[in-house]
Design brief:
Elements (H helix, E strand, L loop, with lengths): L11 E3 L2 E7 L17 E4 L10 H4 L4 E9 L8 E6 L5 E6 L2 E7 L5 E4 L9 E9 L10 E5 L5 E5 L13 E6 L4 E11 L2 E10 L5 E6 L5 E6 L2 E6 L13 E9 L2 E10 L4 E4 L2 E4 L2 E2 L2 E5 L13 H14 L3 E3 L7 H10 L2 E5 L29 H18 L5 E8 L8 H15 L5 E5 L17 E4 L11 H19 L3 E5 L18 H17 L3 E7 L29 H13 L9
Parallel strand pairs: 23-24, 23-30, 24-25, 25-26, 26-27, 27-28, 28-29, 29-30
Antiparallel strand pairs: 1-12, 2-3, 2-4, 4-9, 5-8, 5-12, 6-7, 6-9, 10-11, 13-14, 14-17, 15-16, 15-18, 18-19, 20-21, 21-22
Helix pairs in contact: 4-5, 6-7, 7-8
Length: 597
């Protein structure tokens, strides 16, 4: 799905701001049929949970309603008119006046509706969007709903971050000509000093198509005819980590000699490859340094905020980070575009987090329900997962910053049924995009001996917490466990290994002269122990600390004001570990330590 853009043939109107807001049960069952009778207003984009002081809103399970008036610009007569919702977490329904025009399940990918037949240029209409936050065993991410003795519906889920909901990203009106571009797919390669650009264009109706490639200064450097083909850019400037360079593919739909529609898609020329135990970008070994992150800020929840976007990237640059993983869902498109422009490498992850009922038993190994079964996570869950994967690839396929797809976070990959669940998804991912490697992050329960799916993927990505959840406070033992574990994965699979998560909860300002968990000194020593091990394992190609910043979680006695594994606080103040990472990563500069050989 193309991101709405203002072009010579298209116009764009943002609908962000304050919307009337109500929780289901406080308004009629069909609130779209009239003006919402509510004193509440909610900000868009933002999660609604932390906006209000009423706990019944924060803890609500079910639907909420947003409403506002919108006006179609009078100059849009004769154009197709679209309404686009960048995300509705986790389910959305859109009404134009009294008419349902769009429905979508999945909280982190966009959806849109052609509303041309329901509105008129120059006139207002009533726009109502319902958002449902319910998670079940057939949603991605999954969850369960229980009913308390007093009748309150309660949402339970298996992921360790707060289930923020609402319209966390922007809502748009945009126009397009009657015959217009509907999708563009770009693949790039390198042929000596030249770059090759393969393209495929889809249009709303058959029409002649031509393309032009513009460099960063706006000069035309290549052109082509037809809805698909390959063009060459002589003396190409490659997109590189830390040195981004973007071209623009101008796609034009023709009506005789006139341009009926024009759409420009930014792209970078680069290659990605896994060769043996190396991860290569443009044929050169790349070593990942960075973080697992979250879209999480005070008050806004998962609401996108450009100020935090800029500051977070500044902090990543300050630490020397060159990459991050979109844990544990696709981030806002603005984040991906910013990474494209600033040369930050991205591992792009689906929202498949929590596909692991073994956590019910914990590290003690108590009995738990089977993860993979028709009653828990079966064919219907996998179909929802596949739909989410299709939408993620369709949205992010042209971003040069995206170098790998991550299909799931910490699934129960050692349980019977895991291979049957994931094998079709891996095949689908390779069909959707044969140009990028695939991974998933393996939970602590999955070892090199019992994991059932790692051979299906290109890169081994491990989440490990030796020294925190295992061998707590004993970093000497943790170092031995970690190195033994990593070497076993390397020996069995012979693939590149990335540490997708490693970290220790840390209360800012808590200090000790001993290795005491929760202190800033322990977090720093914990990370340094991991780095010693990483530098000794030849197959190791990357380190993503968990987490960039502290973040909100669900209620639990093992969490005090959220997850504190961030090297920055939730309001982005550095802990001691941030300074230690900066010293290491600035020296590495995206290269594996030379001591490895």
């Amino acid at each position: 799905m193309l991101k709405p853009r203002s072009t010579p043939t298209r116009e764009l109107v943002g609908l962000d701001g304050l919307w009337r807001f109500a929780v289901a049960g406080t308004v009629p069952d069909d609130p779209w049929e009239g003006r919402l009778d509510t004193p509440l207003e909610a900000a868009v984009p933002a999660s609604y949970n932390d906006l209000f002081t009423d706990p019944a809103i924060r803890d609500h399970v079910g639907w909420v309603w947003y409403q506002r008036q919108a006006r179609v610009p009078r100059g849009w007569a004769g154009e197709r008119i679209f309404l686009r919702v960048d995300a509705a977490t986790h389910e959305g329904r859109v009404y134009v006046d009294d008419v349902l025009v769009a429905e979508h399940i999945g909280g982190y990918t966009p959806f849109e509706a052609d509303i041309t037949g329901h509105v008129r240029a120059g006139e207002e209409f009533r726009l109502t969007i319902g958002v449902g936050n319910e998670l079940t065993n057939t949603t991605i991410p999954p969850g369960t709903i229980t009913v308390a003795q007093d009748g309150r519906r309660q949402q339970k889920y298996l992921h360790d971050f707060y289930n923020y909901a609402g319209l966390a990203r922007s809502v748009w009106l945009y126009s397009a000509p009657q015959v217009h571009v509907t999708d563009v797919t770009i693949t790039t390669g390198v042929d000596g000093p030249a770059g090759t650009v393969g393209y495929t264009v889809e249009t709303s109706a058959p029409a002649p198509v031509r393309v032009r490639v513009l460099d960063a200064a706006g000069a035309e450097v290549a052109s082509g005819e037809g809805a698909s083909g390959t063009v060459r850019i002589e003396d190409v400037t490659l997109w590189r980590p830390g040195a981004a360079y973007l071209y623009g593919l101008v796609v034009e739909v023709l009506d005789g000699r006139e341009v009926a529609d024009s759409y420009t898609e930014p792209f970078g020329v680069r290659t990605v490859e896994v060769r043996g135990t190396r991860f290569l970008i443009n044929g050169e070994p790349f070593y990942f340094t960075g973080f697992g992150k979250h879209e999480d800020t005070p008050v806004r929840g998962k609401g996108h905020d450009d100020a935090y976007l800029v500051h977070d990237f500044q902090l990543m640059e300050w630490t020397g980070a060159n990459s991050f993983r979109t844990s544990h869902y696709p981030y806002a498109e603005e984040v991906m575009e910013f990474a494209d422009r600033h040369g930050i490498v991205v591992i792009d992850e689906t929202a498949a987090v929590g596909l692991n009922l073994a956590v019910q038993g914990g590290l003690a190994g108590r009995a738990h329900d089977p993860t993979w079964s028709p009653e828990t996570f079966g064919a219907a869950t996998r179909e929802a997962h596949a739909r989410h994967l299709r939408e993620l690839v369709a949205r992010d396929k042209n971003h040069p910053s995206v170098v790998m797809w991550c299909l799931a976070n910490e699934p129960s990959s050692s349980e019977e049924g895991a291979r049957e669940y994931f094998e079709p998804l891996v095949a689908l991912a390779r069909e959707l995009d044969p140009t990028r490697p695939l991974s998933y992050t393996a939970v602590m329960f999955a070892s090199s001996r019992n994991d059932l799916i790692a051979d299906l993927f290109d890169v081994v990505c491990l989440n490990r917490y030796y020294g925190w959840y295992v061998a707590t406070g004993d970093l000497a033992a943790a170092e031995t466990y970690l190195e033994t574990d990593l070497r076993a994965w390397a020996e069995r699979f012979g693939k590149p290994i990335i540490m997708g998560e490693y970290g220790a909860d840390t209360q800012p300002g808590l200090h000790s002269v001993w290795d005491v968990p929760w202190t800033e000194e322990y977090q720093q020593a914990y990370l340094e122990m991991h780095h010693r091990v990483f530098d000794r394992v030849e197959a190791f190609v990357g380190e993503h600390v968990w987490n960039f910043a502290d973040f909100a979680t669900s209620n639990g006695i093992h969490r005090v004001d959220g997850n504190k594994k961030g090297v920055f606080t939730r309001d982005r103040r550095p802990k001691s570990a941030a300074h230690a990472l900066r010293r290491r990563w600035k020296e590495l500069g995206g290269r594996k330590p030379s001591s490895v050989g």
